[in-house]
Structure formats: structure tokens, C-alpha cells
Amino acid sequence: MGSRIRARYSPGVGRKRVVIAGLGDSGVLAAIKLGRHADVVGISAKPALVSGQELGLRISRPNDWMRDNWISFDRFHGLDRVRTVHGALTGVDLDARNVFVQRNDGSSLTEPYDALVISTGVTNGFWRRPNLQFADEIGAGLQAAHDRLAEAESVIVVGGGAAAVSSAANIAITWPAKRVDLYFPGERGLPRHHPRTWARIRQRLIEVGVGLHPGHRAVLPDDFAYDEITGDPVQWSTGQPPASADAVLWAIGRVRPNTGWLPRELLDEHGFVRVTPELRVPDHPGVFAVGDVAATDPLRSSARNRADGLVAHNVRAEFEGRPLRSFRPPKQRWGSIIGIQADGLEVFAPNGRAFRFPAWSIDRVLMPWVVRRGIYRGVRDEA
Ligand SMILES: Cc1cc2nc3c(=O)[nH]c(=O)nc-3n(C[C@H](O)[C@H](O)[C@H](O)COP(=O)(O)OP(=O)(O)OC[C@H]3O[C@@H](n4cnc5c(N)ncnc54)[C@H](O)[C@@H]3O)c2cc1C
Q1: Phi, psi (5° rounding) for residue 262?
Q2: Radius of gyration of the chain (CA)
Q3: Residue 101 β-bridge partners
Q4: SS3 category, 258
Q5: How many angstroms is it from 22 CA to the middle of ligand 1?
Q6: How buried is residue 125: exposed, middle or buried, by Cβ count under 10 Å (0-12/13-18/19+)?
Q7: Given the CA of residue 87, which atom of ligand 1 is nearest to it?
Q8: What residue owns the CA closest to ligand 1's atom 29?
Q9: Rounded distance, CA 231 to CA 250, Å?
Q10: 29, 148, 261, 383: which has the highest count of C-beta atoms within 10 A?
């Protein structure tokens, strides 16, 4: 079972071929948008969209998380026209316009392209890994992290970004009897969000009983990969005594781009893919990048700012000799922080103002109409 061709996938004679490298949040959406206009092949290390979003929900209520964040490719109507290959990209020949793939059965494959969209994302902690995985391994990983936290009486979360804050909040909400402490280096958490967002989230963390510890910068041993939940005391380079808990969750934003399969000439000094405002890779016509792997702006925000539509437009525009559009990112992070809760979903705008979807609207309006129909253009129910 290497690649799967759906009933409606029929390669068109003379149609352009687009390879989407990495079918995560951005890749799936770009593939859906291009599927009607080109012969699209999506290459994915996972057999499904396994989103890197909503870490807090994922570790504390994995069944709720799975419903909206782990969706097999055959459930997307928009991917019916797309051929998906379950395998890991191992290289690219930019002159011959081929990518090389190791399939899930160990065999090798060469996929030619007219346009290549690089959307292989980043590696982050235990929850975003680029390795080839089958569904049972993904499920086992989810369960193991959840069980580890469930049995702990006390939890330390290290980090001050959205993943850390969301984890601390959701652990405290799910298991009110646990001691949960959040340690972060700055005076405030969410340093890349608007101060108003932090003010609101800080209040929420206090309400659910999370202990807040600003000014704590953890000592990070060189040989430590930060990709597991640990149990040793945490040392602070900022001078405080070590802190201990049954489980320590590291969400310190040490993201690493999944670009080991690409030549250095495509990458910036940090290993991310260099792009123009049109999301084109300079000097390589037909090659684009989008999502967390693309060095678009300091926050590398093209995934959350929905540049999947822009990259799909620009791929087609380049084929047809039409003008390309530019990506214009907001200066501050925005979005949901702690995910769907019993009282609804709060989404923060770049100016820090919160918009709340009330609880009744989540299953009746937001998920079926805005997300599944509007964003993903139709998702089948699970078999
Ligand atoms: C609709 C939407 C809503 C969002 N909402 C929010 C929000 O509210 N708040 C917020 O903070 N952020 C939000 N985000 C952004 C989110 O936090 C991340 O930026 C996003 O998950 C990154 O997507 P990506 O496609 O770049 O990477 P990923 O989703 O990580 O996808 C990369 C994929 O490539 C695969 N891959 C890697 N290497 C290889 C290889 N060699 N071979 C094959 N496959 C490989 C990986 O396994 C993975 O499946 C949103 C994004 C979207 C699209």
C-alpha cells in the first residue's frame, strides 16, 4: 500500500503536474485548492492530516482533539482528485524537476513535477515529528503522552508561547486536582501576541489554578532533545532553586525545519526555505514554499494567515503567465490559544481583542459550516 488513487483521480493529458511536499495543515489546503486545476500528487509522512495545532487539547482530551485534528485523507472531498503517496521525501533534483520518496513499504519512487510546493513544516517536541508513521503508531503516541500526564499528581510546563500556555490551561481544566505550574522566561507569557491577549489568558490561567512563574529560564542541556515528557528537577539559569514535578512538559519553541531533504541553496541560515513575498523560491521557477517551513516573515506565519490560497493562486498564475499575488503578514500572532472549551471558543485578533464562539455554535455552526465546509470544502463523517 504505497500510494492510493481514488476513483475520481484521473490524470489529464497535457495537464500540469503539481507535487505538494508534506500534507499537513497548509499542504492539505493547498492540494484541495489545486486539485481541480492540475494533476496534484501529495506526499505525506502520515496517512492522514495530523495537525500540529491545539497541543493542550491533544494531551489532555485526545478523543476531542482527534475529532477535529486527525482526519484521514479519504474523508476530504477536495482530495478526491488528488493522489496521495504515503512516504517520506528524501531529495529533489531541481534541474530535472523530480522529487524522491521512500514509500511506506520501503520502496523508492520518483515523482516528476511542473510545480513543487514545499510544505513540510517543522519538528517541535513530541507532537510534531516528520517521521514516517502509520495510524496505530500515531494513536499509541497520543495515548502515551496522555497517560503519562494523567498519572502525574503535579505537572510543570516550561515555556511561554501558545503551546505551553494551552498545555498548562488544558491540563488544569481537565484534571482540577493536579498541581500545574507554568514557568516562562519573560515578564509575561505569549510575548509574540498582543499584550491584551496575554492579559486575558493570564486571568484564565489564574482562574483554573495554574501557578505562574515569570522570569524563569530553564537550563537546557546540550544533549537533551526536548521531545519527551521528563521527570527530573528543572534547573534555572536565572538563579531560582530547582523546581520538581511528576511530569515536566517542554514547550520551549525549539522548532526545527523539516528541510533535511532539500539542498542548502534553497535554505536560509536557520534552515528554513527562502521565499519571495509571492512564496516563490528565488532562482527556481516552479518551486514555492508555504507554512511553517517558509521563511516569509519573522513569525513564519503563512500557515495561520491562510497563504495556502495564495500559493495555489500563484502556482496557477505562473503556469498561465498571469501576475502573482504577495503575502502580507500581520505583525502579531493571532488565533485560538486554549481551544474549544465547555463555554465555547475564544479567538484572539492581532490587536488582542477576543472573539467568542458560544458553546452552542461549535457543533452546529463553527465546525460543520465554517471549518469542514468553508475551510476544507467538505469532510465526510468517519466510517
Ligand atoms: C486553518 C488553520 C487554522 C490555524 N489556526 C491557528 C490558531 O488558531 N492558532 C495558532 O497559533 N496557529 C494556527 N494555525 C497555524 C498552526 O499553528 C501551524 O502554523 C500549522 O499547523 C503549520 O502547518 P504546516 O502545514 O506548515 O506544517 P504541518 O502541519 O506540521 O505539516 C507538515 C507536514 O509535512 C510532513 N513532513 C515533514 N517532513 C516530511 C518528509 N520528509 N516527507 C514527507 N512528509 C513530511 C509532516 O509529517 C507534516 O504532516 C492555523 C493553521 C491553519 C491552516
Answers
A1: -105, 150
A2: 21
A3: 89, 109
A4: coil
A5: 9
A6: buried
A7: 43
A8: 24
A9: 11
A10: 29
Q: Which three cell numbers stand for residue 1?
A: 500500500
Per-residue cell: 109: 519512487
Distance from the alpha carbon of residue 229 to the mean position of ligand 1, in angstroms = 22
**3-state SS class at 146:** helix
Give the CA-trace dihedral at 325, 336, 159, 155, to 10 degrees.
-150
Q: What angle do CA 247, 250, 256 make, to 5 degrees?
A: 150
Task: State which of 53, 72, 299, 334 you would mutate to test the pocket of ligand 1, scoring each by most atoms of that ligand within 8 A of its C-beta.
Answer: 53
Atom index in ligand 1 nearest the CA of residue 26 equals 25
Q: Residue 82 C-alpha to ligand 1 middle, in angstroms?
A: 19
CA of 160 to the centre of ligand 1 (A): 20
266 alpha carbon, distance to own chain's centre: 21
The three state secondary structure string of 65-86 is HHHHHEEEHHHEHHHCCEEEEE
Contact 280, 314 (CB under 8 A): yes
Please provide the distance, in angstroms rounded to a whole number, between the alpha carbons at the two ends of the chain. Answer: 20
Query: How is residue 356 written as a grid cell?
Result: 467568542
- Is 54 close to ligand 1, i.e. is its CB under 6 Å away? no
**CA 15, CA 28: separation in Å to the nearest integer?**
20
Mind listing the pLDDT tens digit of every residue in the chain (383 residues)? 444 445 455 666 679 999 999 999 999 999 999 999 999 999 999 999 999 999 999 999 999 999 999 999 999 999 999 999 999 999 999 999 999 999 999 999 999 999 999 999 999 999 999 999 999 999 999 999 999 999 999 999 999 999 999 999 999 999 999 999 999 999 999 999 999 999 999 999 999 999 999 999 999 877 776 789 999 999 999 999 999 999 999 999 889 999 999 999 999 999 999 999 999 999 999 999 999 999 999 999 999 999 999 999 999 999 999 999 999 998 888 899 999 999 999 999 999 999 999 999 999 999 999 999 999 999 999 87
- Number of helices (H) and strands (E), helices first, in the chain? 8, 21
